[in-house]
Design goal:
The chain is mainly beta. It has one domain: 3-Layer(aba) Sandwich (Trna Endonuclease, Chain: A, domain 1). The strands form three sheets. A five-stranded mixed beta sheet has the order 1-2-3-7-8. Strands 4-9 form a two-stranded antiparallel sheet.
Length: 146
Amino acid sequence: MPTATLDLPLNLKAKGDLAELTVAVDLLRRGYKIAIPYGEDCDFDLILIREDRLERVQVKHTRSDGRVVTVRCRSHSLTNGKIRRTKHYTAETIDLLAVYDATSDRCYYVPASELGSGRSILHLRLEPARNGQLAGTRPAERYLDP
């Protein structure tokens, strides 16, 4: 009987589901409790229970190039395959943006306070910039803990 592997081509929904499960397992392994909201109408995918606080977690799937993890800080609502609405994540709608990088099989956690008023993309650096720039860069290791 064949076994499933993570190397199989996945559609967008399956990638999102894989990312949500991977982040949930990562948080549970760290000793946190989680809750999963019912339905598809929430602005977040998971609820992180940290001490006596509930935190809204939006989960994203990505594949890094080995140097940079590109994080899309938005989602699109589709109708008949056409973008109906673009929603940017902010601290008003989520508390944490969790990113599963399928290339490295790691989870990164970006506080929503770093998303500003609705940025589209941010980059987490796995390696230093080739030009030596440090200002304005986000070293990925800074985002390994929620």
